[in-house]
Amino acid sequence: MQAQLEKSREQLKEQQQQTEIRKEAGRLDTAPLPHTMEDALRPSSRRAIVITEKSAPFRVVNVNRAWEDLCGYSYVESKGKSLGELLQGPETDQVTATALVSTLLQGEEAGAVLTNYTKDGRSFRNRVRVGPIYDENNSVSHFVGVLQEMKM
């Protein structure tokens, strides 16, 4: 009887976790990535957006208000720094972060979930999607990142 009760509790816990995962999936930002600087920096965007240089170390060029709110850094504090300096910490998976950059440098959009850190040191699960920003000549001028905190 005790074993059955324990098994039922485990099954219930697993079902609750799966329900939470499905709920979270329904809230995922699935909108296309912006492809122009103008689209990326629209003041009305609720998406946390960062624009970086197109070459390593990918220094921050601009961020929007939603990014400031999520990460805790102001535009002034962020400008000129790499995202690694700002957001990475002891539990950030470097292999996944490197794979993300590698895919981006091949001209493809990419996405991953990383453990990142806010200015005050709080860790958060970050669903980050990255892609190129194009100039008026349709050449890659910058990269864009769209961040979304994953509640677990």
Rg from alpha-carbon coordinates:
18 Å
Q: Kindly report how far apart the N and C termini lie.
A: 32 Å
Spatial shape: globular
How many E strands?
5
Q: Order of SSEs, N→C?
A: HHEEHHHHEEE
The overall average pLDDT, rounded, is 87
Number of helices: 6
Q: Percent of residues in helical segments?
A: 25-40%
What is the makeup of the main sheet?
5 strands, antiparallel
Strand content: 25-35%
Provide the spatial order of strands within the biggest beta sheet.
2-1-5-4-3
Which spans of ≥5 residues are poorly predicted at pLDDT below 50?
21-25
Class by SSE composition: alpha+beta
What features would you describe in this structure?
The chain has a five-stranded antiparallel sheet with strand order 2-1-5-4-3. With 152 residues, it is an alpha+beta fold. The protein has helices at 2-26, 37-40, 65-71, 75-78, 83-87, 94-105, and strands at 48-52, 60-63, 110-117, 123-134, 140-150. The protein is built from six helices and five strands; from the N terminus they run H-H-E-E-H-H-H-H-E-E-E. A hairpin with a 7-residue loop joins strand 1 and strand 2. 22% of the residues are buried.
